[in-house]
Amino acid sequence: MKYVFFDIECACVFKNVAKICAFGYVVTDQTFRVTAREDILLNPKGKFHLTDRKGGEGLVLPYEYEDFKKYPLFPAEYGRIKALLEDKDAIVLGHATMNDVNYLNLETKRFHLPSFRFVFHDTQFFYMNTERDFTRQYGLGAMAEELGVEFTPHRAVDDAYATMRVCEALCKREGVDVQGLIARYGVRGGRIAGYEIKPPVSVGLRQYISERDEQRAATARAHDEFYRFVNKHNNKRNKGGSLDGKVFCFAKDVETDVPLSVRLVKAIFASGGRYTSHPCECNVYIARGQGGTRFQSAMQSGAAFIPLDALTQALEGS
């Protein structure tokens, strides 16, 4: 068994276009001893339009762009790349591999070539499983720094090599090889076939999704319960009280803490205040702290901010 680490750089990436200019790969044995390493440079047949992951201009690849015109088009190297990735004796890996597999998929469609067909793994996804954190995507640079790996970003073969070193460090930290990581975290690799791509999954990811969906459902139920109370009692408030003319809005995490939010809004209604679900319509905004889009909307509309603790003490006399 051998490992094939790969990375791709593109001259441009749009929704349905990804013009590949570099396919870098590193082949190792199961001890991470490098047996092959290469940067396959390609004529992208198009202009360079480079953006970072947030869509900002200014990303620069460490290549001379004019040189790419002398390299072959993707179809000329397609067979070699396909053989490398579809090798039955290889485990294929990358970093944020879904992106690179999608680039390959788009190029095969652009040049009317048969679809790739292979299973792939993702060092980013491995790392997310070891950290038990599926709420964010970890960049190769951040992972490399945390695991003590140095590299030059955006040169395809160097990124592939850095991905290999990160994987090696991760395996060393976990005390297993790649197959051991796959088994320990119940990872099923991603797949491409027939121009369709399926992402990698794991036991931990399934559990996270289940817990996230359960939490979202609980939050939705709490939200509905709070607004049923508000809609029922908003027009029954005691007019002429000390809060007459005051229109309150709570942060979402306060609203969905139903025992607290109902108790507070009862006290607001008892003193003649009103409640709105729209922060831009309130003149008093209540939250545990400052920040967030609802807070900004309320402040831009001229609302006063009152910390939750201060409101609780004022309304409940504690």
Could you please describe the fold and organization of this structure?
The protein has 318 residues and is α/β, with parallel strands linked by helices. The chain has two domains: 2-201, Nucleotidyltransferase, domain 5 (2-Layer Sandwich); 235-316, 3-Layer(aba) Sandwich (Rossmann fold). It has eleven helices and eleven strands. It has helices spanning 74-85, 97-110, 123-131, 140-147, 156-174, 178-184, 203-233, 252-255, 258-270, 293-300, 308-316, and strands at residues 2-14, 17-28, 34-41, 90-94, 118-122, 190-193, 196-198, 247-250, 274-275, 284-287, 304-307. Strands 3-2-1-4-5-6-7 form a seven-stranded mixed beta sheet. Strands 9-8-10-11 form a four-stranded parallel beta sheet, sandwiched between helices. α3 packs parallel to α5 (156-174), α4 crosses α5 and α7 (203-233) runs parallel beside α9 (258-270). The longest helix has 31 residues, at 203-233. The chain is elongated and about 80 Å long. It starts with a strand and ends with a helix. The mean pLDDT is 91.
Largest sheet: 7 strands, mixed
Order of strands in the sheet with the most strands?
A: 3-2-1-4-5-6-7
- What is the total domain count? 2
Can you give the helix content as a percent range? 40-55%
Please state the second-level CATH architecture of the largest domain.
Answer: 2-Layer Sandwich
Count of distinct strands: 11
Oligomer: single chain
Superfamily (CATH H level) name of the largest domain? Ribonuclease H-like superfamily/Ribonuclease H
Distance between the termini: 68 Å
Q: Which class of the largest domain in CATH terms?
A: Alpha Beta
Q: Looking at the structure, what is the overall shape?
A: elongated
Order of helices and strands: EEEHEHEHHHHEEHEHHEEHEH
Which strand-content bin applies to the residues? 15-25%
Judged by helices, strands and strand pairing, the structural class is: alpha/beta
Provide the CATH topology of the largest domain.
Nucleotidyltransferase, domain 5
Mean of pLDDT: 91
Number of helices: 11
